[in-house]
TrEMBL record:
The gene is Vigan.03G214400. Belongs to the iron/ascorbate-dependent oxidoreductase family. Coiled coil: none annotated. The lineage of its organism: Eukaryota, Viridiplantae, Streptophyta, Embryophyta, Tracheophyta. PROSITE patterns: FE2OG_OXY. This is Fe2OG dioxygenase domain-containing protein.
């Protein structure tokens, strides 16, 4: 396997060395390089009221008009991001694949789950762990558990901050999201994904089209390559995450709570141009499992009739027959037809 290390250059433009010259099937999965908004985390908490107001307005627009954005100037040290990605590059060593099979599906209450899909519909190896309210992680290779726990702790701080800022952009007190979702007791699942290079995949799809449940999804990656998001306007957009930035995607349950004002977005991973493997670390930050989530009364009026059923987060995760750790979207069951 071509080695990916955290020192590999990250590009904010299409990674030329990661794209083959063949343009086959380019049309089926082609996407535009349209702009994705950038939100400056530090300015959301600026002491300067004008700066803070402008940053919050930028966040509001990103949430309402896009539903996804790059988060820069956040509080996670670069070394924590780098060691997490390097840790999973080691974890996914092809020579140790048999050791990973112990985490294969054993039952609906798995706290750690590994799988390998190599088919026309999906090409990815992944490890999922339930990271909150209790933290679970493999203990090999040595150090991986500590690295992951540190990463998750740092990311939860950011998500708590986003909860406060998003509440403000919606016109509420800062603790609105925390109260509605009980994020302090929230159900977080991390998915570490390894996508093969095109030469070793069975098709072009890394992960098929889907949305993700929860408040927000945070994503970091080692190299650009293949993540595409469908915009409100029905246009596929390529994601090129700036070095050490975090991609934030709004989750289904923010859409439910806001009665469709802040929507989650369909996304997919296409591996047809990847010359090297790619790793992403994706965390679905969810409400507390027992929390009943329905559209807030403030978002429902004659012009905006209630468009979603209420259900507990746990019920919504199980509505499509999946296990909790699958964290499958069930928006199709929650949204009124
Ligand atoms: O790996 C990616 O870029 C996206 C993965 C994803 O959408 C997911 O794990 O839910
Ligand atoms: Fe996803």
């Amino acid at each position: 396997m071509a080695e990916i290390t955290s020192t590999q250059p990250k590009l904010n433009v299409p990674p030329v060395e990661n794209i083959t010259s063949s343009q086959h099937s380019a049309d089926l999965f082609s996407a535009s390089n349209d702009n994705i908004p950038t939100v400056d985390y530090s300015l959301l908490f600026s002491d300067n009221p004008v700066q803070r107001f402008l940053a919050l307005e930028n966040l509001r627009q990103a949430c309402q008009e896009y539903g996804f954005f790059y988060l820069v100037n956040h509080t996670i040290p670069d070394e924590v991001l780098d060691s997490t990605l390097k840790g999973f590059s080691d974890f996914f060593d092809p020579k140790t694949i048999d050791e990973r099979r112990v985490f294969g599906k054993s039952g609906p209450s798995d706290k750690i789950r590994w799988d390998l899909n190599s088919s026309a519909g999906e090409n990815r190896e992944y490890l999922k762990v339930i990271a909150h309210p209790q933290f679970h992680a493999p203990s090999n290779p040595s150090g991986i558990r500590k690295i992951l726990e540190e990463y998750h702790k740092e990311m939860r701080n950011i998500v708590a901050g986003l909860g406060r800022s998003v509440s403000t952009t919606l016109g509420f007190e800062e603790d609105y999201i925390e109260k509605e979702f009980n994020l302090k007791s929230g159900f977080d699942v991390m998915a570490m994904n390894l996508y093969p290079p095109n030469s070793r995949s069975k098709g072009e799809v890394g992960i098929p089209e889907h949305t993700d449940p929860g408040f927000v999804v945070t994503l970091v990656q080692d190299v650009d390559g293949g993540l595409q998001i469908l915009s409100h306007q029905g246009k596929w957009i390529n994601v090129y995450i700036p070095h050490h930035a975090i991609l934030i995607q709004l989750g289904d349950h923010l859409e439910v709570l806001t009665n469709g004002k802040y929507k989650s977005h369909i996304h997919r991973v296409i591996v047809n141009k990847n010359k090297v493997p790619r790793i992403s670390v994706v965390t679905l930050h969810g409400p507390q499992l027992a929390k009943f989530i329905s559209p807030g009364v403030e978002f429902v009026d004659e012009e905006h009739p209630q468009s979603y059923h209420g259900m507990t987060y746990k019920e919504s995760l199980e509505a499509n027959g999946g296990d909790e750790i699958d964290v499958q979207s069930s928006l199709d069951k929650i949204r009124f037809l």
